[in-house]
Amino acid sequence: GYFQMDEVNKAWIELIQSKSPNFVFTPQGRITSKDKDWVHFIRAIQDHGDSFFRRVKKHLPENGSMNEQFSRWNGSALGARDLTWSYASFLSALRARNHDIKITLKR
Fold first, then answer.
1. What backbone torsions phi and psi does residue 104 show, to the nearest 5 degrees?
2. Residue range 22-63, pLDDT digits in tens
């Protein structure tokens, strides 16, 4: 596999790179699964994704109930409470993340 940086994803890659000292994107803007930095690249993306899980955890009440949204200003719960899709979305994202970790570690 490979990943090609372009004008659409450039800002996102630069954000990931700024938070990941082990990952430096190639000057050509392309990284392949055969490159020595591929695993660092994948882990940097995973860490960025994990930051969203950490944010959710930070704002969940002790009983673990989820609201539809978080306030952008202070993280307080907003919107409808205990919507099935909120839990399903979180669990689906967690499942995909764990699947990606397994694939990365097989390498």
1. -65, -40
2. 777 776 788 888 888 888 888 888 899 999 999 999 988 899
- Pick the closest to residue 25 from 8, 51, 50, 44 (CA basis): 44
Angular region, 82: left φ>0, alpha ψ -120 to 50, beta rest: left
pTM above 0.90, yes or no: no
Distance CA(21)–CA(101), nearest Å, equals 20
Q: Are 70 and 90 in contact (CB under 8 A)?
A: no
- The pLDDT score that the predictor gives to residue 105 is 58
Q: Across-strand partners of 30?
A: 4
Q: Are 3 and 30 in contact (CB under 8 A)?
A: yes
